[in-house]
Structures are given as C-alpha cells and as structure tokens.
Automatic annotation (TrEMBL), chains A, B:
<keyword id="KW-1133">Transmembrane helix</keyword>
<feature type="transmembrane region" description="Helical">
    <location>
        <begin position="126"/>
        <end position="149"/>
    </location>
</feature>
<dbReference type="InterPro" id="IPR006702">
    <property type="entry name" value="CASP_dom"/>
</dbReference>
<feature type="domain" description="Casparian strip membrane protein">
    <location>
        <begin position="9"/>
        <end position="137"/>
    </location>
</feature>
<feature type="transmembrane region" description="Helical">
    <location>
        <begin position="12"/>
        <end position="30"/>
    </location>
</feature>
<keyword id="KW-1003">Cell membrane</keyword>
<dbReference type="InterPro" id="IPR045009">
    <property type="entry name" value="CASPL-5"/>
</dbReference>
<keyword id="KW-0812">Transmembrane</keyword>
<dbReference type="GO" id="GO:0005886">
    <property type="term" value="C:plasma membrane"/>
</dbReference>
<comment type="subunit">
    <text>Homodimer and heterodimers.</text>
</comment>
<protein>
    <recommendedName>
        <fullName>CASP-like protein</fullName>
    </recommendedName>
</protein>
<comment type="similarity">
    <text>Belongs to the Casparian strip membrane proteins (CASP) family.</text>
</comment>
<feature type="transmembrane region" description="Helical">
    <location>
        <begin position="37"/>
        <end position="58"/>
    </location>
</feature>
<keyword id="KW-0472">Membrane</keyword>
<feature type="transmembrane region" description="Helical">
    <location>
        <begin position="78"/>
        <end position="105"/>
    </location>
</feature>
<dbReference type="Pfam" id="PF04535">
    <property type="entry name" value="CASP_dom"/>
</dbReference>
C-alpha cells in the first residue's frame, strides 16, 4: 500500500478522526446542555446523528493510533470498503443534520417569537456550525479513503 | 471506453438526467406557485439550488441525447472531471436544500401558528420530497460517472 496521507492508518487520518470526534462532541454539548431540544425534530435528528458519529470517529481514531504507534497491519480490501461506505453514509447524514439544524435555528431567530430565551438560539447556531465542521472533516476522510480503494 | 450503464453518454444517463430535471422543476413549482417563500431563508436556498440544478441537468441531458441518438463522441478526461465535480457539488447542495426545507416545513406544521393557511405547508413538504428524489437521482449519476473516471 502506498502511504497516502489521510487514508486509514496514517497520522493525518488520526488527526482528521480526532477533529471529527471533537467537533461532534462540541455540537452535541451545545445542543444537549439545554433540555428543550427534543421539542424540535431537526434537533433530535442532530443529536441522533452525532450519537452515531462520535463512536464511529473514535473507533477509527483508535485503529489509526494503533497503526501509527504500534504496528501497521496490512490493509484488507473488505474492511476498507466497509470504512468507505460507512464514512460516506455518515457524511451525508451529518450534512443533512447540520443543514436542518441551521435552517431551524435561523427560522427561530427571525420569527422573534418566545423561542429564543437568553442565548438559546446562538447555542443552536453554534451547534450547527460545529456539525458543519465535523461534516467537512468527515468528507475529507471519505475522499482520501475512496482514493485509496482502487489501489488495494 | 466501456459502455458503463449510467455514465455520461448512455441512455440510462439520459433517463437519470431527465428524472432530475423533472423532479427539480416539480420542487420549484410546488415552492414558487406560492409567493410567500421568500420570507424563509431555507425556501430561498431551495429555489436558488433548483435554479442551478435545472439548467445543469438539462444541458447534460442534451449531451446524452446527442450521444445516444446521433453520434457517440470519444470521452475527454478533462470534461468528465468537470462533470463529476459539478455533479458532486450540486448533489451536496441539493441534499442540503432538501433537508433545510423539510425541517422548516416540519417546524411550521408542528408549531401550529398562523403560518399554514390552506394547504400551504403540505406544498412545502411536497417540494422537499421532490428535492429529495432529485438528490437521489443526482447521487446515482455522480456515482456512475465517478466509477467511470479511472478507466479513461
């Protein structure tokens, strides 16, 4: 296997995965520290997707860390395919959740109803921004892994 | 070039492109026949993206029709790369617009305020559904063209 930066098992990939996990956790915290999120479908969707994203990123970060610091296993095309498909699906879902959250937060702010008590709506916006950053890193990982796949 | 079904210049691709254009036009009509869409950011976003989607799909449908019915030009890797990149970018934007519209329409319905006069909100939902279908076909086109790219 060529040492493609960003593909599974490299230090760049480890950095990407850790970034995804950190942004996902930040997005989840901004959303969940308030208890009102479950009254909006879009926010529940974001929480669900982030709950899928975090374990996925952390598991692959562990695999990368093992590969970087301990021993580089020979890549298995089957496992790589699963990683690529999972990455793409999660990347689409993260984008969908981020867009839903952003548009609902925007609507709540412009409608100027009794929804935005205190700094609540800015927190929703921050949560959406973190989800977008997480999506961006996840897309980068997906593209690098997809690039590597035909050479296996 | 192998005759990969669904790649640029085949009849399957022509069908996919026509489907995208039809669903995009339907989504635009469901949204725009009402004049209130511009008061919501998400709906303006959907209209913008559909306005990009329709000429893109129709242009590529024309290319496919020419290739199927008149004469098959030899594929150029440069042009194929532009088509693949444009497809992916538009596919992501369509997904984003569809999700935003769906979540805002859902919020308007559940908030049961004075927003949904008549059948307005069902029309927003239908528009989002059409945008999702258009995204699905656009994703299929992108995957087929991406698959073809390394063999050029």
């Amino acid at each position: 296997m060529d040492e493609l930066p960003g593909a599974l098992g490299t230090s760049a990939s480890l950095a990407l995965r850790l970034g995804q996990a950190i942004f996902s956790v930040a997005s989840l915290l901004f959303m969940c520290l308030d208890v009102e999120f479950y009254s909006y479908t879009a926010f529940c969707f974001l929480v669900t997707i982030m709950g899928l994203d975090i374990p996925w990123s952390l598991t692959l970060a562990l695999v990368d860390a093992f590969s970087v610091f301990v021993k580089r296993p020979s890549p298995q095309p089957g496992i790589m395919s699963i990683v690529v498909i999972g990455d793409w699906v999660l990347s689409f879902l993260t984008l969908a959740a981020a867009c839903s959250t952003a548009s609902v937060a925007d609507l709540l702010i412009t409608s100027s109803g009794p929804f935005c008590v205190g700094k609540l709506c800015s927190r929703y916006q921050l949560s959406a921004a973190m989800a977008f950053l997480s999506w961006f890193l996840s897309l980068a990982s997906s593209i690098f892994n997809l690039w590597l796949l035909p050479s296996l």
